[in-house]
């Protein structure tokens, strides 16, 4: 218990009398008055002293109230307190939402409030079952938080009417625990991500308990099935705790669930094998008194919290380093508990029929209307709410104060807690090109050096996540200052494993994605590094998270969180050795589908541009940033200051790489986006400079892909006039692109000169071959680009047909070379013929990087 000089309210003496001596109402009102006294004495959020126990009768009343509010949200337009018999006009015309999972969610919430009060805990609640929205909204309303955030949803009869009406109603709120729902960091629109979000939230949050209810249907999804293993990453000394609560209600939409149909002993052994200490509580079956379930669940919950406290004490005070067996609760209840047992002669409670809306057609079916009336009356609303619709004082004692309410916990609105990163300067890691452009560097290795410094400056606020590829993607300099998080056995042959590590690697893109989401949504910062081809594994998770950010931006009380940053390396043009399965740049196309207010895509051409881009992305908020960068040695084209200027513009004319003459129109524009396409485009221009010296070529590099869109479609987009000034309104544009060519056409379809834009990129041709042969297979090599210029610039095709033929011959010759020698020839594998001579090495310097990019 935290100490405080304020004199505590004498709860002990009051509890000695108990509700039996005073009456429940008087007892409750005096407890509440004591809370008010502590608040007026200066305590900002939590009471100085808390009751050792809230009556389970009070918990039961809260549960019944939450159930009543949940049913009301699904069915009622009016008559929220049923102060007159229900009429057809009181019922919504479209009955939407899901009842089956809600009673158990409400039961867990009611009991968590009790232990928060009892132990002064810092808890957030994650509702994993997909359609738990009614329960989360109901409990947020009972907490008082909902009315504080939405003043029109007041704690009275009219507020209740509006609360019910808005649910799954046009202009209202969704049926999930969406961003509009106080206390939620997890919508549950797509199942499977509750546990991974819970563990992400607990990392580096030593005082937080994340209570995570998991549906037994949800438990069948791939991500959830893997998420049980995340207890192997939780450090009890420095992280918070996750308490998984598996709700076995037996059914999904139309089928039984696996975990509910295996023997209890087998289920318990399964979770022991995962590394948990499980406890099972069953209740609600065969007409059993609910108070017995309350008693059993209260005991199991308190034992679980005792276990968590003991584990953390052993780690923090005794230095215990053996991986603990964290507690896990299994709550077995009927699906649709407390709802209609039989409808139209068919069983409903404890069957799959309770999943959604048990009573359909209530407006048209008087018998169903009467059954709904009886269902709502079974909760005895006159005992729960006063005549004006306010929760009675007897039940308000189960309402924690201030930010101790799960619906008002700042960890569930992470922007309230977020601190900006302390970012080191870039100069100390930048590649020095003072001896001339072209210094060879591995861009992601250069970035890894800077990320090492970011971790040094932000040891408890920043993490790196990835599927076993941190070193493979050349970020392993981070191991100079931290290791990989690992709570398991460590062998002498292992490297870079530690209980205190801030890098998390697990061979599941789903888990690393979900962990970072939970980490960001609770107010921290991070980076997710992955192979480009396999980031598609999280396409659907990206969808869900982008939609969450999109919706959050419209919720006034939600504060912005740090952006989700993807670093995609080992990309398509340097996966020649792994073959076709590893060659896919299509994640970019997928990302562009989302709202322009959310997504950003960057294709830095060299190491210094990558540094500038990463620094910008780590400063940004509420975006999904996708960075694609290579890890193989490649030329550095720009100094760090030039990279800053280039990044601020998003795309630039590189006059030193082109051949245009000042004051004269170019004959052709050669544009590029991506590291390998930039190198090939530059090589093509040098061939043109040598072979057609009179040709005026403008060279444009694009680092911010969304600059190609019109300014009316994306906030980074160029205006039509600005685009025409760069790409011309009528000259041929040969565009060498990292990804699928159609994406550039999609982004530029409204441009004046779109008909003259010709894009080369990945055309779904790949195999195990050499890097240059991969380029030739997809017509992105320098010789093909020269041929494109000749064919598209007026008159060149007639006068330079022999050169075009020679370029074709070069392609055949290089392919033959690879087939004979198994590698690319030196004149295409290096930087020969480019407008610089590559050199090795770099020097360190100091400088300032406080100026962000001009946009965002």
TrEMBL record:
It comes from Glaciihabitans tibetensis. It is an enzyme of class 4 (lyase). PROSITE patterns: PHOSPHOKETOLASE_1, PHOSPHOKETOLASE_2. GO terms for biological process: carbohydrate metabolic process. This is Probable phosphoketolase. Residues 55-416 form the Xylulose 5-phosphate/Fructose 6-phosphate phosphoketolase N-terminal domain. Keywords: Lyase, Thiamine pyrophosphate. InterPro entries: Phosphoketolase, THDP-binding, Transketo_C/PFOR_II, Xul5P/Fru6P_PKetolase, Xul5P/Fru6P_PKetolase_C, Xul5P/Fru6P_PKetolase_CS, Xul5P/Fru6P_PKetolase_N, Xul5P/Fru6P_PKetolase_ThDP_BS. Residues 631-829 form the Xylulose 5-phosphate/Fructose 6-phosphate phosphoketolase C-terminal domain. Its cofactor is thiamine diphosphate. CDD domains: TPP_PK. Its EC number is 4.1.2.-. Belongs to the XFP family. Residues 823-856 are annotated as: Disordered. One of its GO terms (molecular function) is aldehyde-lyase activity.
């Amino acid at each position: 218990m935290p100490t405080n000089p304020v004199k505590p309210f004498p709860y002990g003496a009051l509890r000695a009398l108990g509700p039996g001596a005073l009456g429940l109402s008087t007892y409750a009102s005096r407890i509440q008055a004591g809370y008010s006294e502590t608040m007026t004495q200066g305590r900002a959020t939590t009471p100085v002293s808390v009751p050792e126990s809230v009556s389970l009768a009070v918990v039961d009343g809260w549960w019944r109230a939450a159930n009543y509010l949940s049913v009301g949200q699904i069915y009622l337009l009016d008559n929220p307190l049923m102060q007159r018999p229900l009429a057809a006009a009181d019922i919504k015309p479209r009955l939407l939402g899901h009842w089956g999972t809600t009673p158990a969610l409400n039961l867990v919430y009611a009991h968590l409030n009790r232990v928060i009060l009892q132990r002064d805990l810092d808890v957030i609640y994650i509702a994993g079952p997909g359609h738990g929205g009614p329960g989360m909204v109901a409990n947020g309303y009972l907490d008082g938080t909902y009315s504080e955030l939405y003043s029109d949803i007041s704690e009275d009869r009219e507020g209740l009417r509006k609360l019910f009406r808005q649910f799954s109603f046009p202009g209202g709120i969704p049926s999930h625990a969406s961003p509009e729902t106080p206390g939620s960091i997890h919508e549950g629109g797509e199942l499977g991500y509750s546990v991974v979000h819970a563990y992400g939230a607990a990392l580096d949050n030593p005082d937080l308990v994340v209570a995570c209810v998991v549906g037994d249907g949800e438990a069948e999804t791939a991500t959830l099935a893997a998420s049980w293993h995340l207890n192997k990453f939780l450090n009890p000394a420095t992280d918070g705790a996750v308490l998984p609560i598996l709700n076995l209600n037996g059914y999904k939409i139309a089928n039984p669930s696996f975990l509910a149909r295996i023997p209890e002993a087998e289920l318990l052994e399964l979770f022991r094998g995962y590394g948990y200490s499980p406890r099972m509580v069953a209740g609600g079956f065969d007409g059993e008194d609910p108070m017995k379930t309350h008693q059993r669940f209260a005991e199991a919950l308190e034992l679980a919290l005792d276990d968590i406290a003991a584990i953390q004490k052993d780690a923090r005070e005794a230095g215990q380093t053996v991986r603990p067996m964290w507690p896990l609760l299994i709550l077995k209840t009927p699906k649709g508990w407390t709802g209609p047992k039989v409808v139209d002669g068919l069983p409903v409670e404890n069957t799959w029929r309770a999943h959604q809306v048990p009573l359909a057609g209530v407006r048209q079916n008087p018998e169903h209307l009467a059954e709904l009336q009886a269902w709502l009356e079974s909760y005895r609303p006159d005992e729960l709410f006063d005549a004006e619709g306010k929760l009675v004082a007897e039940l308000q004692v189960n309402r924690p104060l201030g930010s101790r309410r799960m619906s008002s916990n700042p960890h569930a609105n992470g922007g309230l807690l977020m601190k900006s990163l302390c970012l080191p300067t870039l100069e100390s890691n930048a590649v020095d090109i003072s001896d001339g452009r072209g210094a060879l560097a591995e861009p992601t290795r250069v970035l890894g050096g800077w990320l090492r410094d970011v971790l040094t400056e932000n040891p408890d606020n920043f993490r790196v996540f990835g599927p076993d590829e941190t070193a493979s993607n050349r970020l392993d300099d981070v191991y100079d200052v931290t290791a990989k998080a690992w709570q398991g056995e460590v062998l002498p042959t292992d490297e870079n494993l530690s209980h205190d590590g801030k890098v998390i690697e697990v061979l599941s893109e789903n888990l690393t994605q979900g962990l970072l989401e939970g980490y960001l949504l609770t107010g921290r910062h991070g980076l997710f590094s992955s192979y480009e081809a396999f980031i598609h594994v999280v396409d659907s998770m990206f969808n869900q998270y982008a939609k969450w950010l999109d919706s959050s931006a419209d919720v006034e009380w939600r504060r912005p969180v740090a952006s989700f940053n993807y670093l995609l390396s080992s990309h398509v043009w340097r996966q020649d050795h792994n073959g076709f399965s590893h060659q896919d740049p299509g994640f970019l196309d997928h990302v562009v589908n989302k709202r322009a207010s959310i997504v950003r895509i960057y294709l830095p051409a060299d190491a210094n541009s990558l540094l500038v881009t990463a620094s910008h992305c780590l400063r940004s908020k509420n975006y999904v940033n996708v960075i694609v960068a290579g890890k193989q040695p490649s030329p550095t084209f720009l100094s760090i200051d030039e990279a800053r200027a280039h990044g601020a513009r998003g795309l630039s004319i590189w006059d030193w790489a082109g051949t245009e003459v000042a004051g004269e129109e170019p004959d052709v524009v050669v544009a590029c986006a991506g590291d390998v396409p930039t190198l090939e485009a530059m090589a093509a221009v040098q061939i043109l400079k040598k072979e057609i010296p009179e040709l005026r070529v403008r060279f444009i590099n694009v680092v911010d892909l969304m600059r190609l869109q019109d300014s009316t479609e994306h906030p980074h987009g160029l205006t039509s006039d600005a685009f025409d000034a760069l790409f011309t309104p009528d000259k041929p544009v040969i565009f060498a692109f990292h990804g699928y060519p159609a994406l550039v056409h999609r982004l530029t379809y409204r441009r004046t000169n779109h008909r003259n834009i010709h894009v080369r990129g990945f055309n779904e041709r790949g195999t195990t071959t050499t890097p240059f042969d991969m380029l030739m297979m997809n017509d992105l090599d320098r010789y093909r680009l020269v041929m494109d210029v000749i064919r598209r610039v007026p008159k060149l095709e007639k006068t330079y047909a022999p050169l075009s033929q020679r370029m074709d011959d070069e392609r055949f010759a290089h392919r033959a070379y690879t087939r004979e020698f198994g590698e690319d020839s030196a004149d295409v594998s290096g930087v020969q013929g480019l407008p610089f001579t590559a050199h090795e090495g770099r020097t360190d310097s100091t400088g300032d990087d406080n100026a962000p990019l001009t946009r965002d």
